[in-house]
Amino acid sequence: QVQLVESGGGLVQAGGSLRLSCAASGRTFSTYAMAWFRQAPGKERDVVAAITGRGGITYYGDSVRGRFTISRDDAKNTVYLQMFSLKPEDTAVYYCARSSRGDWGARPRVDEYDNWGQGTQVTVSS
Fold first, then answer.
1. What DSSP line would sit under 52-113, residue for residue?
2. Could you read off the pLDDT of 13-62 as tens digits, one per residue?
3. Under 8 Å CB-to-CB from 13, ≥6 apart: which residues?
4. Cα separation, 115 vs 95, whole angstroms
């Protein structure tokens, strides 16, 4: 069982920045795609950004493309989400997740991710 531990959430004003980190246990971290999902109250969990195993390809949701950047450091078993120009609608619990595969099909899907962190709250005030 892989353990994922997120950090870096918090309260920020609109237009501000935050960087989320997700530290993973396990020796095969680099093989698998990693992603950040988010879930706001009353809404479904949706993909924010994803990165393939060994980091060759990234995916961004339409609402965050150009503002967020996902990256990974396989030497540290860590994946990051740098968030700029935050908006109140970015407020949600953000989850780090490890895929069961190294990439994805048309887009990353929740059901492809079999290891999840506990989530970290991001709140953007207007």
1. -GGG--EEE-TTTTTTEEEEEETTTTEEEEEE-S--GGG-EEEEEEEESSSS-SSS--GGGE
2. 999 999 999 999 977 888 999 999 999 999 999 999 999 998 789 999 99
3. 124, 125
4. 10
Sequence length of the chain is 126
Which tokens hold the place of 24? 């993973």
Report the distance separating Cα 54 and Cα 83, nearest Å.
21
Would you say 35 and 61 are in contact if contact means Cβ atoms under 8 Å apart? no
Q: What does the alpha-carbon distance between residue 31 and residue 11 come to, in Å, rounded to a whole number? A: 33
The predicted-structure confidence for 46-58, as pLDDT tens digits, reads as follows 999 999 998 789 9
User: Tokens standing for 71?
Assistant: 């990256």
